[in-house]
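The following record pairs a protein chain with its ligand, zinc ion.
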Amino acid sequence: MALWCEQAWLVDGWRNNVRLTFENRRISSVETDVEADAGDERHAILLPGLPNLHSHAFQRGMAGLAERAGRGDDSFWTWREVMYRFVDRLDPEGVRGIAALAYAEMLESGFTRVGEFHYFHHDVDGRPYGDLAATAEAIAAAAGETGIGLTLLPVFYAHSGFGGAAPTRGQRRFVNDVDRFAKLLEGSRAAVTGLDDAVVGVAPHSLRAATADELASVAAMAAGAPIHIHIAEQMPEVEACLAWSGARPVEWLYDHADVGSDWCLVHATHITDAERHAIVASGAVAGLCPITEANLGDGLFPAREFLAEGGRFGVGSDSNVEIDAAAELRLLEYGQRLAHRGRNLLAAGADASTGASLYRGALAGGGQALGRPGTGLAVGEAADIVSLKVGDPFFSGRSGDAILDSWIFGGGRRLVDCVWRGGVKQVAGGRHIARDTIDARYRATIARLLA
Ligand code: ZN
C-alpha cells in the first residue's frame, strides 16, 4: 500500500512529492522529491491524524438537549442533571450505537485515536451487568466498527463529594469500590484484545469521586499505562476542595500523588501560577477541551503562560457537543485572544504559524496522554493519516503552514477528505465508509432512548 502526495507535513516540516508506504499498519518508508508509482493512491496534502485525548462518547446523543435556559443560574450543574436523566435510559446497545456515530465523526474530522473516559458501567438500578465490563465491550465494539484507535480509560467513581461523601442516586450506574474496579479493569483489558493497538489506562474520575487511598490504589493499577483525572474544571469544585482540605485541587493532587508524564490532568482550568508550574515541571499533559469548556461555561485555562513555559497539552472533544479537531484548536487560541486582546498567542515563537504550533503540540501531548507517543509521519509510526480537500476553492493559493492555518482557522471538518487509521482507509470523501450502517443504528438508538 502506498500513498503519494504533492505536499506532506513530516516531522521536520513540509516536503514536496512525498511517497509513503505502509506495512503492518505502520509507516514503512517515507521518500521525498519522488514521482508517484503507477499503483500509488494520489493525494494533494497529507498530515498525521490528531489524538482526541478526552471523550465521553455517549454524550454525543444528548448534544443540543441542554441548551434551554433553566431557572436561576444555569451552569455545569444543571447540564449534569440533564446528562443524568439521559443516562437513566442508556444500556450497552445504546452506548455502542451512540459511540459508533461519535467515533465515525471523530475520524471524519481528523481525529484518529480517542481516549474514552468511560464511567458508565452498571444497569439501570445500579447493579452490575452479569458481564461486569458489558459497556466497555460496547465501546470496544464501536471502536472496532469505526476503526478509530482506542485508549480505553475505565473510570473509578465512588463518591459524590470530597472526603468520601456517599454517591447520589444519579451516580448509581458509575460507582465501584476498589476491588470491583480491579475486576472491571481486567474485563476492560479483555474487551479490547481484538482491537488493533488498543491501550487500557485508568481514570479516577475526580478528587470528588475518589479518596486519597482509593486514588493511590487506582493509580497503581495503571501499571505504566496512562492515568487520567478531571480536575479544577469548575470554581465550585475548587472552593469545595479548599473548604475540605485547605488546598486547591491541583495543589492537593501534587501533594498526595506521584504525578508524572503518565498523567493527564483533564481541564485544569482554575490553577494558580504555582499549580501551573507544578504541572509543567511534572511533564503531565493538560487535557484541554475548549469546545466543551466553552459550552459548559467552565472558564479559560491559562494556555498562553502554560505553553510559553513548555507545558504539554492535547485536546479532547469531551462532551462531544461538537466534534471537530480543527475547531478545538481554533477555540483554544480564540479563548486566549479574547482574554488577552492579542493575536497568535499560542504560536511557538516569532513568525511561527499558530496552526502548525497548535497541531504539533496537540499531536505530541495527545499521543503521550493516550499511551501512544508519536512524532507524526515518519518510519515506524502508526499509519494514522489525514488528507485535506485541497481541490476546495478555499485552499487556493495556500501552501505549507498556510494550509494548516487555513484549515484550522477558516475551514474545519468539511475540508477533511480521507483518513487512514493503522493504514486502513476509514474515511473517503469526508465520509466514514460504514456511515450508512452507523447512522441507521444511531437513529434507532436515539428513538428508543428519547421515546
Ligand atoms: Zn470529561
